[in-house]
Amino acid sequence: MSPFFVMSLLFGLIFGQTASLCAPSEYTIHVEKRECAYCLAINTTICAGFCMTRDSNGKKLLLRSALSQNVCTYKEMLYRTALIPGCPHHTSPYYSYPVAVSCKCGKCNTDYSDCVRERVRTNYCTKPQKLCNL
């Protein structure tokens, strides 16, 4: 192997973040409330992609700090609020959702992310659909 290849490989292993492909990605969520007449399809952005992870088969032999379980998570986000149409007066017609502004590879924060695995959910409407582009 050439010295350039070896140095590139070492550099890539040391600075694995550069090989990560974690970025805001377009996503459509479907929101409906039992009391409201319509389902709302909201176009937003979420953090998605690949992050370099170091995990060893010999976990018991290594210090916990030597293991790295990074996920693609929010670096910066903001919340927007949408109005669900067709709600009766006694029901709140508002739904707030996160919008990814920028993403990073890092530890999973359980305050706003599901860190275990993706839950099996239905992401579709059972009522007539309205589209929300914000």
What would you say about this model in short?
The chain is mainly beta and 134 residues long. It contains one helix and five strands, in the order αβββββ.
Report on the architecture of this protein.
The protein is mainly β and 134 residues long. It has a single domain (18-125), classed as Cystine-knot cytokines (Cystine Knot Cytokines, subunit B, Ribbon), CATH 2.10.90.10. It has 1 helix and 5 strands, in the order αβββββ. It has a 3-stranded mixed sheet with strand order 1-2-5, with no helix packed on it. Strands 3-4 form a two-stranded antiparallel sheet. The longest helix has 12 residues, at 3-14. The chain is elongated, with a radius of gyration of 21 Å. The protein starts with a helix and ends with a strand. The mean pLDDT is 76.
- How do the helices and strands follow one another from N- to C-terminus? HEEEEE
CA gyration radius, whole angstroms: 21 Å
Poorly predicted runs of 5 or more residues: none
Assign the CATH architecture. Answer: Ribbon
Query: How does the helix and strand content classify structurally?
Result: mainly beta
Number of domains: 1
Work out the number of β strands: 5
Annotation field: number of helices: 1
Q: What is the oligomeric state here?
A: single chain
**CATH class label:** Mainly Beta
- Under CATH, the homologous superfamily reads Cystine-knot cytokines
Strand order of the largest sheet: 1-2-5
CATH topology: Cystine Knot Cytokines, subunit B
